[in-house]
Structures are given as C-alpha cells and as structure tokens.
Specification:
single chain; alpha/beta; Amidase signature (AS) enzymes; 15 helices; binds glutamine; ATP-binding; Amidase; ATP binding
C-alpha cells in the first residue's frame, strides 16, 4: 500500500531518491512467513521505513544528496538500518536531503528539491525534508533522519510531523555519512510521539563500531510516551522558557501557537519558569564555524579515488587535476562554501581566533544549559522561528537559512536531546508549527513523556 502511495504522490512531493520495491516486498513476505510459522516478532515487524540517504544501505544507493556519491554502493548497512531490519522493519526507500545534510530547505540536494505536502510551493524544511515529507504525505509511517543542527526537528516542524534528536551518542553513527562528527546524531521521525518513540527504541544503544556511542541502559521511550498520554501526567514538571530562544523575527502565528502549547503544558500540571541564557545568542555564529571546520575535514575523503564520481579533465592530467575536476563537478555550491569556510577557519594563524573561540562559546552554552536544568526539567521553544518558506525564497542568501537554525542549533552544541511535535498551523499561512522540547543528556524519555502529554 505504501509503495502504491509513493507511486501516486511522489511525482509531486519528491521525497524519495530511490525506492527498493523488490527488496521491500521480499522483506515483507519474509515477515509474513515468519509470523505464519508462529514466530514472535517485535511490534514494528512488517512496518515500512523510509531512510534518509545519509545512512548507507547495501540494497539501495547512498548519495547523501550529492553528485559526488552518484553510483556509490555501500558494502554494509548503517547500524541504525541494520537494527531496524533486525526488528523486522521494511526499508522502502532512501529519502531526499540537502547535500551532505547542509541546509534547512532540501533545496541544496543535487537531485532537485522536495516539496512540502501541505503546499507544494513551500519547502519541507531540511536537511531531512525527504524523510519528513514522506511521513507527512503518508508515503511511509516511519523515517530515519540525521540532526547536526536541526535536520530532524526543523523539517518535522515544517511538515506537521514528530521528530527527535537523541542525546549525542544515543544512537550509533556508524554508516551515517559524516557532516560534523561532534554534532551529528541519528534519530527517528513519524506522525505521532508514540510512533517516534517506538522507532527510537529499535535504533538506540551502544555500538562497538562507533566510539562515541554511549554504553547506557536506555529506558523504553515507548513506555514513556504511553505514560505521558495519561491525564495530568505532567504534575510537578518544571518547564523553562528561554528568552534567547524566542529569537528576533519569530512569526506571529508561531508565537500564538507556542503560547497555546504553554497553556496546554500548564493544564497538564507543568509549572513554567523563565530562563535567561545570554550565550545562546552566539550559538549560530559558533555552529557555523565548528560545522564547516569539521565538514571540510570529513569531506576531504571525496578525492575521486575512494568513492563515487570521477571526472577526468580533457586531455588527461595529474592526480591532482582529476581530484580537482571531480570535486569541482561533484560538490554543489553550499558544500563548496562550507569546505572553503572550514578550511580557512582551521588554517594556521586563524585556528585560535575562529575554531578555538567557537569551541569556547560551545562550552559556555553547555554550561548555560547545565545551569538551566538545575531549575527546570524541560525547556520549551518554537522549533523554528517561521513556518515553511516558499521554494526559492532564500536563493542566493544562505544567511537566511542559517538564522532559521537559531532555535535548533543549541541542542547540538550541547549534545542534549530535542523533540519537535506539531502544535497546529499558523493562521496567516495555514502551515504547521512545531514545539521544541529540550531535556538534559540521557533524558530522552522525558521528552516523549512530555510530548505525549500535550499531543
Ligand atoms: N540547517 C543546518 C545546517 O545547514 C542543519 C544541518 C543538519 O542538521 N544536518 O547545517
């Protein structure tokens, strides 16, 4: 049924870069046969799963939205994908994304933009616009994404879906094509808080292949979501509203829905506390130094030899000529911009001034969150300052995209978990608005509990 739905609507939405009809149907039949044979299977066995193309898969291409990985086939599955398959989930396709997850609109994909199912003239958010749109358009009930600066939460908000960035290290990054390794985190996306939690339970946990993955006995996220759905479940919960996350330029309808969400939290027993966190103002500036620095290093491996595309200059040339021609043709404008920025920020004589300073700001932000979480259990903010903008609206002005990340980026800098859930539509444009909830590291379950309480 989901493959039929994809065939019917994906020509308009373009959520998928590849689908795996044959392997999906085979996997579904295998699950049916095992069930018929009396095997006890997990709750999600047989449920379709869309996978952001940042995660490598053996049975489908993995491009990370880039031309430079065109034709690349991975010899192994990313751990999150392997865990999902082991739980019986059926991988139906790979979803569109901004190139190497650099972007907030999915317009930076080398394979054309994804459209917002709510309004085809609008962006679906990014970088994981494909995963969020696939879920919102009922092409898949569940999807995997990656969140380096908001790429699960912001597209979830813009498409009326639910998405969660786990605590850094909560889900293995093995087989996730790296953007900025100290910020990247894999996580789930779905249409309800409980569905998102169920997928989270499947992919979480320690992985010997990822040295940053946490060896921690995670509680059941699904159990927390079910608990939260009970009346009055937030009694005594302290919810912080951070002044600096109500950034300049928050759209009127976003403010309105956010105020209503705060009322809902209060009605469920939560107590609201105002928080001042002055260094959050510098989060965007710090992030857009740290991310390009790490990205320029991670993207150095696309050298025309080891992966994907190879372009030979006319009349031949040296190894360097081939590398240069391949990178010129294979990387898009945003990837090039960040490689140049990052290389500059890391270069001798500038390292301390840029990368070093940004890391100091990152520490200050981490401390500010630690202080805030002495006063509150959860922090609430709009997921993004605006609803989905029109395709092409930010063309040629990447700074507009960057500024839209002001609300999501702090969680990545601090390594803490963040949830986005839909809280209605903005009256002025009829487009979905997301509520972001943040919690201390390891407290992902608290987010599912709180989110389910007001869903
Ligand atoms: N919009 C952010 C960026 O462009 C988010 C990226 C992400 O989370 N992958 O860097």
């Amino acid at each position: 049924a989901h493959l039929d739905r994809i065939a019917a609507v994906d020509g308009s939405v373009h959520a998928f870069l590849a689908t795996g009809e044959t392997s999906a149907l085979q996997a579904a039949r295998d699950i049916d046969a095992r069930r018929a044979a009396g095997e006890q299977l997990g709750e999600l066995a047989g449920v379709p799963l869309a996978i952001k193309d940042v995660l490598v898969t053996t049975d489908m291409p993995s491009t990370s939205g880039s031309k430079i990985l065109e034709g690349y086939r991975s010899p192994f599955d990313a751990t999150a994908v392997a865990k999902a398959r082991a739980a019986g989930l059926v991988a139906i396709g790979k979803t569109n994304m901004d190139e190497f997850a650099m972007g907030s609109s999915t317009e930076n994909s080398a394979y054309g933009p994804t459209r917002n199912p709510w309004n085809f003239d609008r962006i679906p958010g990014g970088s994981g616009g494909g995963s969020a749109a696939a879920v919102a358009a009922f092409e898949s009930p569940l999807a995997l994404g990656s969140d380096t600066g908001g790429s699960i939460r912001q597209p979830a908000a813009m498409t009326g879906s639910v998405g969660l960035k786990p605590t850094y290290g909560g889900v293995s990054r093995y087989g996730a094509i790296a953007l900025a390794s100290s910020l990247d985190q894999i996580g789930p996306c779905a249409r309800t808080v409980l569905d998102t939690a169920m997928l989270h339970d499947v992919i979480a946990g320690h992985d010997a292949h990822d040295s940053t993955s946490l060896d921690f006995a995670w509680p059941s996220m699904a159990a927390a979501a079910r608990e939260g759905a009970r009346d009055g479940s937030l009694t005594g919960l302290r919810v912080g509203v951070v002044k600096q996350l109500m950034v300049d330029g928050v759209q009127a309808g976003v403010k309105q829905r956010f105020a209503e969400a705060i009322d809902l939290l209060t009605a469920q027993g939560a107590e609201i506390v105002e928080i001042d966190a002055p260094h959050l103002e510098y989060a965007v500036a710090a992030y857009y130094l740290i991310l390009p620095a790490e990205a320029s290093s991670n993207l150095a491996k696309y050298d025309s030899v080891r992966f994907g595309l190879r372009v030979s200059p006319e009349g031949g040339g040296t190894v360097e000529d081939v590398m240069s021609a391949t990178r010129a043709a294979g990387f898009g404008a945003e990837a090039k911009r960040r490689i140049i920025l990052g290389t500059y920020a890391l270069s001798a004589g500038y390292y301390d001034a840029y990368y070093g300073s940004a890391q100091k700001v990152r520490t200050l932000i981490q401390r500010e969150f630690a202080r805030a979480f002495e006063q509150v259990d959860v922090i609430a903010s709009p997921t993004a300052p605006t609803t989905a903008w029109a395709l092409g609206e930010h063309a040629g002005d990447p700074l507009q995209d960057y500024l839209n990340d002001a609300t999501t980026i702090p969680a990545n800098l601090a390594g803490i978990p963040g949830l986005s859930l839909p809280i209605g539509t903005a009256p002025e444009d009829g487009l979905p608005v997301g509520l972001q909830l943040l919690a201390p590291a390891f407290q992902d379950a608290q987010l599912y509990r709180s989110g389910a309480a007001i869903e």
